[in-house]
Specification:
- This protein has about 100 residues and is mainly α.
- The protein has helices at about 30, 40-50, 60-100.
- It has two domains: about 1-60, no CATH class; about 70-100.
- It is built from three helices and no strands.
Length: about 100
């Protein structure tokens, strides 16, 4: 039985960079990876293929920035939604009062 390649690219390496880790994977990264010597890496790569070699474990700065901007946008949209909802409730009450007085 032939095994697939030992690719880490789709497992925890960010697609926005060549070698940084997806930020959501950093929390339990020590459960996902282990350090091996270059000799062991070469033997595994020769047998299973795959890659790229991961030489450091740091979160992707691009993804962190994108997540921060997305959260800021969601927060602003949430605040605007609440503001508009309150305004509509107020206008509904005012309209009801006006209709009742005519």
């Amino acid at each position: 039985m032939r095994r697939g390649s030992a690719s880490v690219a789709t497992f925890f390496i960010c697609v926005a960079s060549c070698s940084d880790v997806q930020p959501k994977m950093m929390e339990d990264i020590t459960d996902r990876v282990c350090c091996v010597t270059e000799q062991v890496w070469r033997a595994l790569h020769k047998r299973f293929g795959g890659g790229p070699a991961v030489t450091h474990l740091q979160p992707c700065g691009t993804c962190i920035q994108k997540a921060k901007l997305l959260e800021e946008r969601r927060s602003a949209e949430r605040e605007k939604y609440v503001e508009v909802s309150r305004l509509l409730q107020y206008l509904s009450c005012v309209t009801s009062l006006c209709l009742n007085h005519t």
